[in-house]
Amino acid sequence: MPQFVQFNLSDLTDMLGEDDVKSILSSFSCPMNKDVEDFIRNKAIEFSKRGFAKTHLVFWVSDDQTEKELVGYYTVAPKVIKVDKKAVSKSVGKRLRAQGINSHDDNEYIVPAPLIGQLGKNYADGNNCLISGNELLALAVEKVKLVQNEIGGRFVYLECEEKEKLLEFYQENGFKIFGKRLLDRDETGIDGEYLIQLFAIL
Ligand SMILES: CC(C)(COP(=O)(O)OP(=O)(O)OC[C@H]1O[C@@H](n2cnc3c(N)ncnc32)[C@H](O)[C@@H]1OP(=O)(O)O)[C@@H](O)C(=O)NCCC(=O)NCCS
Predict the structure, then answer these.
(1) What's the per-residue H, E or C state across the chain?
(2) Structural domains in the chain (count)
(3) Measuring from atom 9 of ligand 1, which residue has the nearest CA?
(4) Residues 86 and 182 in one domain
(5) Is residue 9 domain-shared with residue 65, that is, in the same domain?
(6) Structural domain span for residue 171
(7) 126 and 105 within one domain
(8) Rounded to an integer, what is the distance from CA 159 to the centroid of its chain?
(9) Which of 4, 28, 30, 32 to mutate to test the pocket of ligand 1 (most atoms within 8 A of CB)?
(10) Whose CA is nearest to atom 15 of ligand 1?
(11) Are 97 and 196 in the same domain?
């Protein structure tokens, strides 16, 4: 079994100082998704500080604990989602209604669902081979479950570009597509005009 340790970026910054953390993050490489790379290199510390989204760094650790490699990261942020009633089955609708916040619009459910805002493996030095996407996503989902165990909630939310490989990856991991959202003007470096919205029931 591979061994991973996780660090909350805010905690790591407190421990090591911002300069050392920036130097660790500057080595992160994600050629297939420049947004994921840019976020961790240039935005994650600020977003963590301001409480917009918390980043969690995942390190692979060797059996004898002497080696540690940054293999990926994910971010989690608080969020409320609107789900069109027509987009889900009756049984899923029931669960959404049970957790729902009242909406003025009878055609939608509104539920709290933490957002996994960024998720990516580190392709520098072949570190991506030390973790699978399934393992990384499982760690992110586990984090959301931990939070929900304390405060309640059953749903987790994410958005992704309309790319077959990515949609396959999330759907194989239990996420369901329920809509799409137009990109904001400041969301650059993303292919297309909108993002596909998915959620999972935990
Ligand atoms: C998404 C991810 C975590 C899945 O990990 P994984 O299941 O171990 O998958 P791999 O890295 O082996 O990639 C699987 C396939 O998806 C493709 N793929 C991965 N990310 C992609 C992207 N952003 N755009 C297009 N294709 C992508 C890979 O090229 C690969 O294709 P292949 O099967 O033809 O070789 C990982 O691919 C990753 O970190 N991708 C870059 C970051 C990213 O796009 N994150 C998603 C944000 S919504």
Answers:
(1) CCEEEEEEHHHHHHHHCHHHHHHHHCCCCCCCCHHHHHHHHHHHHHHHHHCCCEEEEEEEECCCCCCEEEEEEEEEECCEEEEEHHHCCHHHHHHHHHHCECCCCCCEEEEECCEEEEEEECCHHHHHHHCCHHHHHHHHHHHHHHHHHHHCCCEEEEEECCCHHHHHHHHHCCCEEEEEEECCCCCCCCCCCEEEEEEEEC
(2) 2
(3) 133
(4) yes
(5) yes
(6) 80-113+154-202
(7) no
(8) 9
(9) 32
(10) 165
(11) yes
Atom number, ligand 1, closest to the C-alpha of residue 123: 39
Crossing angle (nearest 10°) for helices 18-25 and 9-16: 120
Q: Could you read off the pLDDT of 62-71 as tens digits, one per residue?
A: 999 999 999 9
30 CA: nearest ligand 1 atom:
41
**Is 137 inside any structural domain?**
no
Structure tokens at 115: 């957002």
Which mutation among 74, 158, 166 tests ligand 1's pocket best, with the greatest number of atoms within 8 A of CB? Answer: 166
pTM over 0.85: yes
Q: Quick one: 125 and 199 in the same domain?
A: no
Nearest residue by C-alpha to atom 38 in ligand 1: 120
pLDDT in tens, 25-36: 999 999 999 999
